[in-house]
Specification:
- The protein has about 725 residues and is of the alpha/beta class.
- It contains 19 helices and 27 strands.
- Helix 10 runs parallel beside helix 11.
- The longest helix is centred in the N-terminal third of the chain and has 33 residues, at about 105-135.
Length: about 725
């Protein structure tokens, strides 16, 4: 049994030698720390899989660059939230120990080692792979010192005309305190010397309002490239080269870039009373002043400047990361938008269901849902919720629209449709979740706009984050009222629908509609309702009901009815759920887990998880859909919705899972969605028992199956058949 490997070797020590050589080892109890992967280290393993997409030469060059930028942004958030949370535990003196048994200090040490290795590999990818490949393709990122005379004149003019007016040098001396350094901003630490020979420190912020890469003309002597040449130089290098303009009469001695990450995990004390919107708004402002949890500096920064920064920023030595430039790889994302479509993924047109298209008559839209439930698989199917809401906004028979909004983005056609509905006299109720991390300010603005327009707006619930995605349209049809429902695994944001894989279900099932009405009454009023007709709702009944469904599957297996579980989700962390899945494996049934990100379960452990396979797919689109399949003795059940299996989802959020009962849709989810993802042998990685991952390898004679590419082909009418018959017919 593989128990001595993984992120917690200390906890595993002693078992291998117990009983002497050749002794039969007893199975560990299911709460044994060796059976669990630390969640923070599992999250870093996910970032490693993101990096692998940047290293993958089969991906177009600018897509590889995009993944590198995503990795850097992900690590920023990891430090702002996860590392900051661990540090807070040390400060308050109440460190928590997860099911894996690792202490806080032990986790922080392991995180530093993992991040150091990951960042070194990311910069090696940029310097040795992407930079040369981009240059060969006609896209060059030059150092300022490598520019020719004409190019320097060009960028210096750009500095004088565009950059210089934006810059604000900030001095640090007895008369002026150490300047505030903004979170996630790139800065220059500058040393200057006055005419009296005295050295002074100053900070110059590299403006975020300007692109990190400054375009510069190619030298005339360069041979022409098939798609033209694009030359750039980094903005912070242009600023560093022109610092004398900021400090006239002084000698610029040296300048070194640095970048800080602050604690951004707001603590909202809701129970103290007061207006939640105001508290969230105040918290967003305070986020700028959170404690520094990481300081990134270049290898060339001398000790005296680093000591000045660490002393004034109150940064510990263990929070300093020396790395190659550029320090903020995510700022390179601006390069993804250059006019080089040959270096990006080929675009495709999502499939459009004609009955939901905005060009159809309003009655046809609702009639289509009355004929049967409709399931849309984004981004392969068009995001037609907007069309549906626009039709509802103008339909004279629609009386009310209710919706939850979590992340809607800065320009929201969903909100626009709700505003049109208000103009047309509909009653509109909106729950805007103000606690959606890093979208708080955008959500505050939407909440105020909707309130001014006359909508009933709820800002969230005390102690809970509303993560469920639900929309309800109430319509008069003759002498009766019918309710139409849309439930989604993803946000009501059309931009996300282009980037993430998600599922959206339209239905007018009376029981589901009644459940959604009850849910909105809970969100907007007072309700102690704990049971729903068909929906599984957290924190009320979702965890208990999922547990019952797994227990039912175990019982089917024990009775010889061949149980089978397939869960597709973003994260598997909850200890109780992992124990249930271990028990399912021990009963002899097959358990297939498609887990995009964190997975704290260890598959393939003898006697514990032999029958569990864990697969992760990153790919072109961020996998975000959730599906829970239960074979149920042949009477199959599938649930879809907003919830992952994490303590926060099951206990501290309002989530929902909905059964997919239409036989057509159930077959599609089973035979096409789940089967295709399980058959993937191009993008898939399989998890080992030690928490690491290995790339899937096609079996001899097996064709290549890229699940996301397969669904693109299907949307474009190229494919109709399932990818592989993995779910054996006799198992159904």
């Amino acid at each position: 049994m593989l128990l001595t490997q993984g992120p917690n070797p200390r906890a595993a020590a002693g078992v291998a030698s117990a009983g002497g050589a050749g002794a039969v080892q007893p199975l560990p109890a299911l709460d044994d720390p060796r059976l669990y992967v630390n969640r923070e280290l599992s999250l870093l393993e996910f970032q490693r899989r993101v990096l692998e997409e940047a290293l993958d030469e089969s991906n177009p060059l600018l897509e590889r660059l995009k993944f590198l930028a995503i990795l850097d942004s992900n690590l920023d958030e990891f430090f702002m939230v996860r590392v900051a949370g661990l540090k807070q535990q040390l400060v308050v003196g109440n460190p928590e120990t997860g099911p894996d048994g690792m202490g806080v200090t032990e986790q922080l040490e392991a995180i530093r080692a993992g991040v150091t290795e990951l960042v070194a590999q990311a910069h090696e990818c940029w310097e040795r792979r992407l930079l040369p490949a981009l240059a060969e393709a006609g896209v060059e990122i030059l150092g300022y010192s490598a520019l020719g005379e004409e190019q320097r004149d060009e960028v210096n003019r750009y500095f004088a005309e565009t950059v210089f007016p934006v810059l604000t040098p900030l001095a640090f001396d007895p008369a002026r305190p150490f300047p505030h350094i903004s979170n996630l901003c790139l800065n220059l630490a500058v040393l200057v010397r006055d005419r009296g020979g005295v050295t002074h420190f100053a900070q110059v912020k590299v403006p975020e309002t300007l692109p990190e890469l400054v375009a510069v003309a190619s030298p005339q002597a360069e041979p022409p490239a098939p798609h033209g040449r694009h030359c750039f130089v980094c903005l912070h290098q242009v600023i560093a080269a022109n610092l004398p303009a900021l400090f006239p009469g002084l000698e610029v001695l040296e300048a070194h870039p640095f970048h800080i990450t602050r604690d951004a995990d707001m603590d909202i004390q809701e129970l103290e009373g007061g207006d939640l919107l105001e508290k969230i708004e105040r918290g967003v402002r305070q986020r700028r002043f959170g404690d520094v949890v990481r300081l990134k500096v270049s290898p060339s920064m001398p000790a005296r400047i680093l000591e000045l920064l660490t002393a004034n920023l109150r940064v510990e030595e263990s929070d300093v990361y020396r790395m190659s430039e550029p320090l903020a790889l995510n700022r390179l994302m601006c390069l993804h938008g250059i006019d080089r479509p040959d270096l990006r993924e080929a675009p495709f047109t999502p499939a459009v269901l004609p009955d939901l298209d905005i060009s159809t008559r309003t009655e046809e839209v609702f009639a289509a849902v009355r004929l049967g439930d409709i399931l849309l698989h984004h981004p392969f199917d068009s995001f037609q919720l907007v069309d549906f809401l626009r039709k509802a906004a103008h339909d004279p028979d629609v009386l009310a629209i209710k919706i939850t909004l979590y992340r809607v983005g800065p320009d929201s056609p969903v909100v626009d449709a709700l505003l049109r509905a208000l103009e047309n006299g509909k009653q509109v109720a909106v729950l805007v979740e103000l606690k959606a991390r890093f979208d708080e300010q955008s959500n505050i603005e939407w909440a105020r706009m909707l309130e001014r327009a006359g909508a009933h707006v709820v800002h969230g619930l005390v102690g809970l984050k509303v993560h469920a995605k639900a929309a309800l349209v109430v319509r008069r049809e003759g002498e009766h009222i019918r309710r139409y429902v849309h439930l989604s695994t993803g946000n009501y944001n059309p931009m996300h629908a282009h980037c993430y894989t998600d599922l959206g279900l339209f239905t007018c099932d009376p029981q589901i509609a009644a459940d959604v009405s009850d849910l909105f009454n809970y969100l907007t009023g007072y309700s102690a309702k704990s049971e729903y007709r068909k929906l599984l709702v957290a924190p009320m009944n979702l965890k208990a009901r999922l547990g019952e469904l797994i227990e039912r599957e175990i019982e089917h297996q024990r009775r010889g009815q061949r149980g089978h579980l397939i869960f597709k989700l973003n994260a598997l962390v909850d200890e109780k759920m992992i124990r249930l899945l271990y028990r399912a494996s021990q009963s002899g049934m097959q358990v297939d887990l498609l887990v995009r990100g964190m997975c704290c379960l260890r598959p393939g452990l003898e006697g514990v998880s032999d029958n569990i396979r864990v697969t992760s797919i990153v790919g072109r689109f961020l996998e975000h859909s959730r599906l829970y399949y239960f074979r149920n003795g042949g009477a199959e059940e599938v649930y879809t919705g907003s919830s992952d299996l994490m303590p926060r989802n099951l206990k501290r959020r309002v989530e929902l899972l909905c059964p997919v009962e239409d036989p057509r849709l159930l077959r599609y989810l089973r035979d096409e969605v789940l089967v295709t993802y399980l058959a993937d042998n191009v993008q898939a990685r399989h998890m080992r028992g030690d928490g690491s991952y290995e790339r899937a390898v096609p079996r001899p004679g097996e064709g290549l199956i890229d699940a996301q590419a397969w669904f693109i082909d299907r949307a474009m009418g190229v494919r109709n058949e399932p990818a592989a018959p993995l779910l054996r017919r006799q198992d159904r």
